[in-house]
Structure formats: structure tokens, C-alpha cells
Amino acid sequence: MGTRFNILLVLVLLIACFVVSGCAVGFYKGRPSDKAKIEELKDELARLREAKSMLDSRLRSEIDSDQVSLTMDDRGIVITFVAEVLFDSGKADLKPDGKKMLKKVASVISQEAADNEIGVEGHTDNVPIKLSGWKSNWELSATRATSVLHYLISDCGLKPNNLSATGYGEYRPVKSNNTKEGRQANRRVEIIIKRMPTAKVSYGSADTNKGYIK
């Protein structure tokens, strides 16, 4: 009995301390702007999922033949083309079949992600360039990415202010360059449909005057 009384006494003293010091514990609802941001994030995710589903349908034959892969990560939707699908070896001019695939991608972007930023990334294996005239794999990867970017703008009608092109050369491999299969996987072009930038919701402190989380 004494033990229970002591526990109750401690709880009463703690509550009194919080009340006196103005640190009473309460629950605060999220402010409307934070709730709106959360809804925007939900809508954005649903839109990206719909775009991915459409891409999966329109690129199904290319995906089944391992020419294209489709994933979704923290950046957004990533469409990866085996380089040989878009370009001849050592070249940066788009092949006719590659252009057809890019048109499929552009049609989905126009329909479902017209305002999203689109990143085009060029990648190579680590085999040194000898005969093609490029200074290095870096120049080749950058020029290939730029070729795709220009096609998406000039022939597919995507907004130029939303697009960017980057060449990474051999420095971001996805597999080992010690095998033929690995080198082929590393020679690639990625188109990333990026998530829309949304301000982060901060839950740093409680504003007791306004009744919401800052």
C-alpha cells in the first residue's frame, strides 16, 4: 500500500511541476499548410505511379527484350536504356529505333509529368576510347545525354526549362566492368522523371498560442 501511495505522490508532484512551469503536455493538430503539403505529396506519388504504369505498358516489348528497364526510387521514375539501343558503338547520333522509344517516353511525360524536372544521364563502361575520336568516355557520355535531351525538346516537344543533361562517363557503374555483361549494363542512358520539389514539413516545436506544430 505504501509503495502505491509513493508512486501516486511522485506522479502528482510531476504533474504539478509541469503545470507550474508552463510545460503542460498537450496534443497539437498539424497546421493546414502542412496538411496541404502532405496531400500534395500523396497526389504526386499517385501521379508518378500512374506514369510508371503507362510507361510499363508502352515499353513492354522493349522491357521484355532487356533493352529498357523501369524502376522507381527516391529520385522518381528511372527509365534505363541499354546504350546500344540508342546509339552505335562510339557514336552519339540517335538510331531510328531509339527515337521511337524516346517518343513513347516523351508522350507519357507530356501527359502525366509535364511540369516535372527531367534529368538525362549518360554512362559508359571503363574501356578506354581509342578510335572513335572522343577525348574520353566522359565526353562521349555527356554528348549522348545531350543528344537525347535535344531530341526530347526539338522532336517531342518537352519543355526545355525542365530538362537537364549530365555525363558521368565510367564513374557510376551499376555492375562490375570485369565481364561482358557488366560492361553492357554500364553502357546506358537514364531518363529520370524527378519528383516535384515540395517543402519539408518541420515538427520542431509546439506553438501553444496557435495550437499547431511548427
Protein architecture, described:
With 214 residues, the protein is an alpha/beta fold. It has seven helices and eight strands. It has helices at 2-21, 32-58, 60-64, 83-86, 96-112, 137-154, 180-186; strands spanning 29-30, 68-73, 76-82, 118-123, 163-167, 188-194, 206-207, 212-213. A hairpin with a 4-residue loop joins strand 7 and strand 8 (212-213). The longest helix is centred in the N-terminal third of the chain and has 27 residues, at 32-58. Mean pLDDT is 84; it is low at 22-28 and 199-214.
Helix-strand layout with pairing:
Layout lengths: L1 H20 L7 E2 L1 H27 L1 H5 L3 E6 L2 E7 H4 L9 H17 L5 E6 L13 H18 L8 E5 L12 H7 L1 E7 L11 E2 L4 E2 L1
Parallel strand pairs: 1-8, 4-5
Antiparallel strand pairs: 2-3, 3-6, 4-6, 7-8
Helix pairs in contact: 2-5
User: Could you tell me the radius of gyration in angstroms?
Assistant: 27 Å
How many beta-strand runs?
8
CATH class: Alpha Beta
What profile does the largest beta sheet have?
A: 5 strands, mixed
How many distinct helices?
7
Number of domains: 1
Q: How many angstroms does the end-to-end distance come to?
A: 44 Å
Question: How much helix is in the residues?
Answer: 40-55%
